[in-house]
Amino acid sequence: MKKIKVLHVGYSDNKGGAAIALQRTHNMCQEMGLDSRKLVAFGQDKKRGAFQTYLSTRSRVRQKLNNLINKVVLKACDTPAGIGIIPSRLHVEINSTDVDIVHLHWLGGGFMSLNDIKKINKPVVWTMHDMWIVSGMKHVIRLNEFYSSVGSKNEGFVEKKINKFLVRMKQDIPNIYLICPSSWMYNLCDKSINCRKKFLIPNPIDSNKWKPVLSAKKTSAKITIGYVSVGGRNSPWYKGFLYLEKVKKALDSKNLNVEFVVIGGKYENSSKGRSFLGNLSEDHLIAALSGMDIVVHPSLVDNLPNVVVESMSVGTPVVAFNVGGISDIVSHKVDGYLSKCCDVDDMVKGIEWSLCNLDILKENARKKIENEFDSVVVSGRLLSAYQEVLLDF
């Protein structure tokens, strides 16, 4: 059988959840014998197959222009947003390759325009890392706003017009095959975008690497609860840090010996039962997650968050709001706890219940990731999707 050649295209391979998912998918493709390559603007991987050539002056100017447009036009947006109309001519580079499939990932930062995508003359697989593919400008939309209108009440006349224009542009892109990491995202695209086919395939993780670190086991009686977000305490509203503070206050009132460990953002000195570790390397993150009793994930909108998969892979159960695609990962009272969205009392209840059932939750959490999210399992589903795309195109 001919070896499939796939080109993964994205803004980065190391900055943010979508970038990490791109890198893991690329690694998985190489491990299963595909000719997998990358085309990214910002990356660290210097191994074979990485076309990291877009750190050029032209690319930086395009990024600054994109940021300027976003600042002027999207000033009312309280979530990440992008217009995606600045030409990059990346389609010329892509069409000149001999790849069989172009696998798009996160294309923000002015990296690639919608018109560039329309001009790709090869089958295009696009992973829905966030809501931008099915919305106008926004990468994240409040759940009660989605489908109620193209925009929201906070947007001005110009923004609403741009939203409608972008939705039409996305619906007109031909030959798109969507990969939805969660069933929530799979259902979202039903009413929002035309595609030839869609597949429900989670982002992979190497559970042989992301496994419990025995040396990280706790030595004190203090209950450690983790919160992980790139921005730490300065994360955007939809990451739910505000609710973490409310949960901590509620637990403190119960006189529990709890320390909250915040990973992401800037390192800060510990104070009042909180530690801020800043951003950690992968190995240090594995060790940190392994040493926690529970990870709390109070996101208000989410797809298939890496941190939930990573935490469970090292055997640390997760208590999360039941939003987006999180229920694809966490099974309520089987390997974690799903709280009602924005219900602090229910999240506190979930933490207390989980602390009473840690041993079985830890065992089940690890098994869940090994059986459903490990790269060995996911690779077969992705390969089948690629083969189906090539037959259909």
What does this structure look like?
The chain is an alpha/beta fold. It folds into 2 domains: 5-204 and 374-392, 3-Layer(aba) Sandwich (Rossmann fold), CATH 3.40.50.2000; 214-372, 3-Layer(aba) Sandwich (Rossmann fold). Helix content is 35%, strand content 18%. It has 12 helices and 13 strands. Strands 3-2-1-4-5-6-7 form a 7-stranded parallel β-sheet. Helix 1 (17-31) crosses helix 12 (375-392) and helix 7 packs across helix 10 (344-355). It is globular and about 60 Å long. The model is unreliable at 147-151 (pLDDT under 50).
CATH homologous superfamily placement of the largest domain: Glycogen Phosphorylase B
Strand content: 15-25%
Choose one word for the global shape. Answer: globular
| Rg computed from alpha carbons, rounded to a whole number of angstroms | 21 Å
Report the span from N to C terminus. Answer: 18 Å
CATH architecture grouping of the largest domain: 3-Layer(aba) Sandwich
Question: Can you count the helices?
Answer: 12
Query: Biggest sheet: strands side by side, in what order?
Result: 3-2-1-4-5-6-7
Give the C-level CATH assignment of the largest domain.
Alpha Beta
Give the total of domains: 2
- Secondary structure: helix percent: 25-40%
Number of strands: 13
List the secondary-structure elements in sequence, H or E: EHEEHHEHEHEHEEHEEHEHEEHHH
Let me know the largest β-sheet: 7 strands, parallel
